[in-house]
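Hi L.,

You mentioned the student needs an example of a multi-chain input paired with its predicted structure. This one should do, with 372 residues in total across all chains.
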Amino acid sequence: MKNRVAVWVLGLAGLTAAVAPAVAQSSLPLPSPVEKELAARASNVTEVTLGKNMLAFAAKFLDGKDKDDEATRHLIEGLDGIYVRSYEFDKEGQYSLDEVDKLRAYFGTGGEWSSIVRERDKKSGESTDVMMKMVNGSPHGLFVLDAEPRELSIVLILGPVKMEDLSRLSGIGGLGVLGDLDPESHGNGNKNKDKFEKDKAKAPKAKTGGEE
Amino acid sequence: MRKLVLIPICFFALAVPVVVLANGVSGGFDQVVSSIETRYHVHADRIPLLGLVNFMARASTHDGVRGMHVAEIEGFEADVDGEELNKLVAEKLGPGWERVIRETSRHGGDQTLIFMRPEGSRMGMFVLDLGGHEMDVVQMSVDPEHLSEKIGKYERHERE
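Structure written out for the whole complex:
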């Protein structure tokens, strides 16, 4: 158990280092009412909330002596906040599509958000939404909502973040889902590469992408 | 005779700052631990000679880590409501602390809470972990720059 605590402490240090940056905690949204209900039903809940202060602290763990560290540090220092929620359920059907819609609406109501990936699998009921906040033509936030039969994951990153930098954050607790979004990554990532490039091209004008 | 007098003087000269520094951040920590003891009818074991451990940790990390507090609760049998535990910890820790990580399981009784608080150029970290029938509570103050330097040194050493 002591080892577990040590792992958590070191993991957090590493995580903060990997995650890092910059938005005031206050700029992160409050949990939506739906999340409270989901948390009550879920068998496992993971919550990660990193405001600007915490990200700045995390960035200090990167000494910037190597190029990767330097790039990650810059990325982290520029961020305003990271908000991750993961709900795992014992069995299928523990959440409704209506609740997923409410979550989507809660986080993605602003006019600056554009849908860049919208994936629906009617057979399994799985769905993935990736939205990007565009400010003056530049990405300034990323929202991912991934719904699987027994798991719901929400990732919200506020601040300037480029798609190509996402893999730098995927080491952080709860942000593993970002690895799949990295257009340069191998494996499943390649599957998404074409889709990303296609979606990136239409991102600025599309509020919602095409259904698959 | 003079040497014999010097020994206790030196001991107190070293012990007093160690104890003072060790207690500097213990207010919230102690309150959290005693509230847990009361609420769940458990007894926390404090690590003996923690002041000395702190002193060594501080010296060996070049002040990267200080103000360490550790409490271990064995035989934790009570059912824990994650929301209630979170509230209790947040309330007893006091203002300034932000919860950055919370992991809670409804059935297994596994609970992890990590709070952080900026302390000038340093950062306070509070970790509570309940797994099975054991709960560990740790608080410390970390200087990320010094610690990063130290970790980097060991990483380089390992690579070599």
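You could point out the following to them. The longest strand of chain A covers residues 138-148. Chain A touches chain B through 33 residues (CB under 8 Å).

Best wishes,
N.
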